[in-house]
């Protein structure tokens, strides 16, 4: 893993934005895997600014998002579908038919997960996957478990994740209890991975992901085995990493 420590959130966002922008320029028909949460918002702002300055063209880019709550409607302002439109897609020239996210209101979630995994495969796989990190070490919504789930699947969220994400909802009762998420295998198949970690609250889990044992109890630790991973941390998150 390449571990890069930068001063602050802004520098982290700029560095990740530059990596993504260079890859978009370099590879026609790029397939990007994107993440939600508060961590990548600055990166998306950086990409929007580049686009508005006429320096970045999204017209040939395809996106697959990591995860979506279940059940949730796409027009719910806490859905990840809504988040991606608000924080990126509505502000750049991406073709909406090339943006993909799991259907949070699918009648048959298992069938929806199979459809999603097949769609990634049919697109030729993910070239560059952006990741955040959950406080409990989750990537996407792959929660600590006894095994590493391979493909896109339906998960019950951890009580700690519901609590952590309740800050965006009226109360923790309003947080959906389930999600549809790319599996660890889906993420691991991405040719290149960039993970962002920001803030002191993530300092312990950042250390576990980077230097700890590789275990499904810390899902992000599997990245130690991937051939092309860059982790960008700000100073606060990197407190215990050096
Ligand atoms: C969410 C998402 C993850 C995200 C993580 C961290 O639950 N499913 O993809 O990386 O939590 O969120 P934040 O960046 O807000 O700390």
Supply database-style keywords.
10 strands, seven-stranded parallel sheet, single chain, binds 2-amino-2-deoxy-6-O-phosphono-alpha-D-glucopyranose, three-stranded antiparallel sheet, alpha/beta, 7 helices
For the biggest β-sheet, the strand order reads 1-10-9-6-2-3-5
Q: How would you describe the oligomerization state of the chains in this entry?
A: single chain
Q: How far apart are the termini?
A: 14 Å
Count of separate DSSP helical elements: 7
- Give the helices and strands as they follow along the chain: EHEHEEHEHEEHEHEHE
Number of strands: 10
Main sheet attributes: strand count, strand direction, barrel closure: 7 strands, parallel
Mean of the pLDDT scores? 97
Hetero groups in this structure are:
2-amino-2-deoxy-6-O-phosphono-alpha-D-glucopyranose
The shape is: globular
Poorly predicted spans:
none
Structural class, please? alpha/beta
- Rg of Cα set: 17 Å
State the helical fraction: 25-40%
Portion of residues in beta strands equals: 15-25%
């Amino acid at each position: 893993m390449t571990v890069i420590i930068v001063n602050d959130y802004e520098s982290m966002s700029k560095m990740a934005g530059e990596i993504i922008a260079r890859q978009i320029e370099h590879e026609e028909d790029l397939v990007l895997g994107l993440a939600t949460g508060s961590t990548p918002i600055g990166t998306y702002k950086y990409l929007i600014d580049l686009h508005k300055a006429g320096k970045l063209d999204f017209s040939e880019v395809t996106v697959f998002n990591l995860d979506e709550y279940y059940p949730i409607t796409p027009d719910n302002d806490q859905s990840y579908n809504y988040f991606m439109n608000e924080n990126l897609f509505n502000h750049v020239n991406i073709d909406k038919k090339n943006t993909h996210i799991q259907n949070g209101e699918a009648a048959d979630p298992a069938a929806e997960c199979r459809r999603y995994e097949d769609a990634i495969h049919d697109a030729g796989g993910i070239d560059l996957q952006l990741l955040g990190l959950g406080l409990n070490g989750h990537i996407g919504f792959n929660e600590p478990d006894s095994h590493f789930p391979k493909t896109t699947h339906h998960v019950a969220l951890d009580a700690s994740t519901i609590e952590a994400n309740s800050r965006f909802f009226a109360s923790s009762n309003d947080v959906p209890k389930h999600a549809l998420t790319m599996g660890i295998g889906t993420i691991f198949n991405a040719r290149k991975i960039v993970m962002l970690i920001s803030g002191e609250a993530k300092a312990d889990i950042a250390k576990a992901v980077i230097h700890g044992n590789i275990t499904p109890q810390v899902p992000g630790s599997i990245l130690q085995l991937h051939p092309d991973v860059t982790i960008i941390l700000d100073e606060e998150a990197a407190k215990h990493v050096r």
